[in-house]
Amino acid sequence: MGLERYSEEIMNLQIGKEDVDNVGYDDDRVEAQARLWEHIYGFARTLVLRSAVEMRLPDIINGNGGQPISLSQLAAGLPFPDPNPDSLYRLMRFLVYMKIFNESTDVANGERVLLYGLEPAGRLLLRDAEKSMAPIILWGSHPDFTLPWHYMKEGLTTKDDATAFEKAMGMTLWDYLAGDPVKSEMFNQVMASESRLLTSSLVRGCEEMFKGLESLVDVGGGNGTTITAISKAFPHLKCAVFDLPHVISGSPDIPGVERIPGDMFESQLPSAQAILLKLVLHDWSDEDCVKILRRCKEAVPREGGKVVIVDVVADAAAEHPFSKPRMVLDIDMMVFTGGRERTEEDWKGLILKAGYRGGYQIRDIEAIQSVIEAFP
Question: Could you tell me which residues come within 8 angstroms of residue 220 by beta carbon, excluding any fewer than 6 positions away?
Fold first, then answer.
């Protein structure tokens, strides 16, 4: 039904203003319904985003020299023939509503033409962008990784302590990835994407903190991506990465960064002025976190030493752009690994149980994670 026909039929109902005023409605009830409708179709936003990434819509627009592009130009760049113009228009209209793209108008040959440009969120979907979130969207919306969310109820039982992912797939996430090279590479791309987003924000947001340090060990630092960026930004720092022997042996040599193999639960941690724990503790139980924090405390000096925790600080009541996604990440951890994101009170409790007497402070950076400095 065309817009004009729809409007005409509404007018033919002949409902006057006084009739509308007499009907009335409960504002709270309407708001409640609207909220539920938004949640019911929350999955649609995710899958619309996925389709935009799969069709490389942001890249097609960006390929026009940064200038807005018409619908026909966009259609010509799609990776399949004969796209339906009306369907493409409606998809773009929704993506404009989602603030992925923006819409403007021009006049060509006496006709009004719609043009589409990139919003900041759209630029984060460019495949080759340094801070591209495209791999995260493709991972999160993949059928294999949406299925475990349907087993959330089964994952709540304490009978066998299995996660929702294990209930859905019959194995842990790590076993699943080990047996599927394609999905494992997807996961690696997600981790690399998250690391690029976080590391640049960490370096910029904690410049003063890093400049005040003399030595830093990245415990559980994997292939050294984060410590490499920190070392390059702050060349005065004596840096090292500490991880399991097979991780260290498989990681590249990093100029200016010492690679040290070991187990953070069994080996003595290398001494340094500061220990970095980036995205480590959210994978572990409270009891294990206390053990890790105690071992880290032993590796730094009592005076002038610190342990730098980079992880989510969840707070449902906070007025912060990342508050909602931080809460969702906690459920994501519960579904996939059995880990958890923690509130400030949770972090405070772990830090105190681990014997830190110097207190702590939290820094917000331009990332979904925060920086928690714990002082021995």
Answer: 242, 243, 264, 277, 278, 280
**Tokens (6 digits) for 240:** 């090292």
* pLDDT tens sequence for the chain (376 residues): 443 343 344 344 444 444 445 556 678 899 999 999 999 999 999 999 999 999 999 999 999 887 999 999 999 999 999 999 999 999 999 999 999 999 999 887 778 899 999 999 999 999 989 889 999 999 999 999 999 999 999 999 877 889 999 999 999 998 999 899 999 889 888 888 888 889 989 999 999 999 999 999 999 998 888 999 999 999 999 999 999 998 888 888 889 999 999 999 998 999 999 999 999 999 999 999 999 999 999 999 999 999 999 999 998 777 788 888 999 999 999 999 999 999 999 999 999 999 999 999 999 999 999 999 999 9
Nearest to 69 by CA among 14, 121, 106, 122: 106
Q: How far is CA 90 from CA 69, 138, 362, in A?
A: 16, 22, 44
C-alpha to C-alpha distance for 93 and 264, rounded to whole angstroms = 51
Q: Is residue 138 a contact partner of residue 121, using CB atoms and an 8 Å limit?
A: no
Contacts of 78 (CB under 8 A, 6+ apart): 55, 60, 88
pTM tops 0.85: no
Active site residue 282: yes
**Quick check: 212 and 183 in contact, CB under 8 A?**
no
Catalytic residue among 39, 150, 246, 282: 282
